[in-house]
């Protein structure tokens, strides 16, 4: 495994201390509203600072793109950080959230770490080296079609531009699959897919930090990640389909009729 994974794991563990320390005192946190249904807490900020501290100390020349503090320019290496993915869950005491850290090198995804501090599940992957859950190899599921498939998704909740498109996709995929889950942390949705716990996933309007690490996990676990039209631009558009290869292709066919230019542009 790429030795930089170990540093990212260490950074994730530092953030997890901030998060778990505060999980039972959510009522006493300062919560700011960034916009419609978009909350940020001191926990998001402090967890992010803890991650950046670890990375900066080891790699002072690397760039950073972090959800709360934004962009810091650097060399060809860029860390992409979501310190707490699933803030709404966290604020409700719903134990499904994660820390997500990815590394891009010259724009290409190189490694990903997603940590669920409640279940103590550390998902790691680096390009060409496979994906691990707590040091055990993971693979995407072997399901061959949508029949019997369990799909993850994210519902629109603050940006309703694609509501009609999304509802059409949901209506069709509900009928064809065994069930749909919306747990509320895109980073963990990808990690679960990589571990074969779900067979496919789609969401519209994600930000890069929500799923950059998750995309590495899924790819390294043998799955496919594309944009919603089947192309490579998933990080730019934030409109994404992922799955084992067969389920991914089946989802793409069902989703296609609901696409328009604004989703693929
Ligand atoms: C959110 C979660 C959620 C997804 C949203 C994201 P946040 O991240 O990943 O599952 O549906 O689009 O914004 O705001 O909790 O870091
Ligand atoms: Ca997020
Ligand atoms: Ca976040």
TrEMBL record:
Positions of Mg(2+) binding: 67, 82, 84-85, 210
CDD domains: IMPase
Enzyme class, spelled out: hydrolase
Gene3D superfamilies, alphabetized: 3.40.190.80, Fructose-1,6-Bisphosphatase, subunit A, domain 1 (3.30.540.10)
Example of a GO MF term: inositol monophosphate 1-phosphatase activity
One GO biological process term: phosphatidylinositol phosphate biosynthetic process
Cofactor: Mg(2+)
InterPro entries assigned: IMPase, Inositol_monoP_metal-BS, Inositol_monophosphatase-like, Inositol_monophosphatase_CS, Inositol_monophosphatase_SuhB
Catalytic activities: a myo-inositol phosphate + H2O = myo-inositol + phosphate
Keyword match Metal-binding: yes
Keywords: Hydrolase, Magnesium, Metal-binding, Transcription, Transcription antitermination, Transcription regulation
Family: Belongs to the inositol monophosphatase superfamily.
PANTHER family for the chain: INOSITOL MONOPHOSPHATASE, INOSITOL-1-MONOPHOSPHATASE-RELATED
UniProt name for this protein: Inositol-1-monophosphatase
Organism placement in taxonomy: Bacteria, Pseudomonadati, Pseudomonadota, Gammaproteobacteria, Chromatiales
């Amino acid at each position: 495994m790429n030795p930089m994974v170990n540093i990212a794991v260490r950074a994730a563990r530092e953030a997890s201390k901030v998060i778990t320390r505060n999980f039972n005192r959510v009522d006493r946190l300062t919560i700011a509203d960034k916009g419609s249904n978009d909350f940020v807490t001191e926990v998001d900020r402090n967890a992010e600072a803890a991650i950046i501290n670890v990375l900066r100390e080891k790699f002072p020349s690397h760039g950073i793109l972090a959800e709360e503090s934004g962009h810091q320019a650097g060399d060809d290496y860029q860390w992409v950080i979501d310190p707490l993915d699933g803030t709404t869950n966290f604020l409700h005491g719903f134990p499904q959230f994660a820390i997500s850290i990815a590394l891009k090198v010259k724009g290409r995804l190189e490694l990903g770490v997603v940590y669920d501090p409640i279940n103590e599940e550390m998902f790691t992957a680096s390009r060409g080296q496979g994906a691990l859950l707590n040091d055990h190899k993971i693979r995407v599921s072997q399901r061959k079609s949508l029949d019997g498939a369990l799909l993850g998704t994210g519902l629109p909740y603050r940006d309703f531009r694609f509501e009609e498109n999304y509802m059409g996709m949901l209506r069709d995929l509900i009928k064809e699959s065994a069930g749909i889950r919306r747990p509320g942390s895109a980073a963990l949705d990808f990690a679960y897919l990589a571990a074969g716990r779900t067979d496919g996933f789609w969401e519209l309007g994600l930000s890069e930090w929500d799923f950059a690490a998750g995309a590495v996990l899924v790819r390294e676990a043998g799955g496919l990640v594309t944009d919603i039209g089947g192309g490579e631009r998933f990080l730019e558009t934030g409109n994404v389909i992922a799955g084992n290869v067969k389920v991914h292709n089946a989802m793409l066919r069902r989703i296609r009729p609901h696409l328009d230019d604004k989703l693929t542009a």
